[in-house]
Amino acid sequence: xxxxxxxxxxxxxxxxxxxxxxxxxxxxxxxxxxxxxxxxxxxxxxxxxxxxxxxxxxxxxxxxxxxxxxxxxxxxxxxxxxxxxxxxxxxxxxxxxxxxxxxxxxxxxxxxxxxxxxxxxxxxxxx
Length: 127
What we know:
The protein is an alpha+beta fold. It has one domain (2-121). It contains four helices and seven strands, in the order H-H-E-E-E-E-E-H-H-E-E. A seven-stranded antiparallel sheet has the order 1-2-3-4-5-7-6. A hairpin with a 2-residue loop joins strand 6 (111-115) and strand 7 (118-121).
């Protein structure tokens, strides 16, 4: 769970450096829809694919981070995205929904359930 948030924060920083007009990660949707950037691309050590309400990022080491964006631009994720992230790690982690729910609950109020089954994090992981 913390690894997902840490990787998402690193992606956010890399995208902002590569695309100066990007104020927040969710802006990638509007830029792709307006064709100011490609729906698929490569930024630093990440490749990205814009989809529906979000974006999938693939790290050079194979780690997969898929995130959706809420109407307010905040990053939201569900247990499926957390599981997919864990399975894509260099040393894969296969955990149950119950374990993932417990991990999310243990991080409240830093991680909140924004709608049933969907979560958002205000956690900034440095380092």
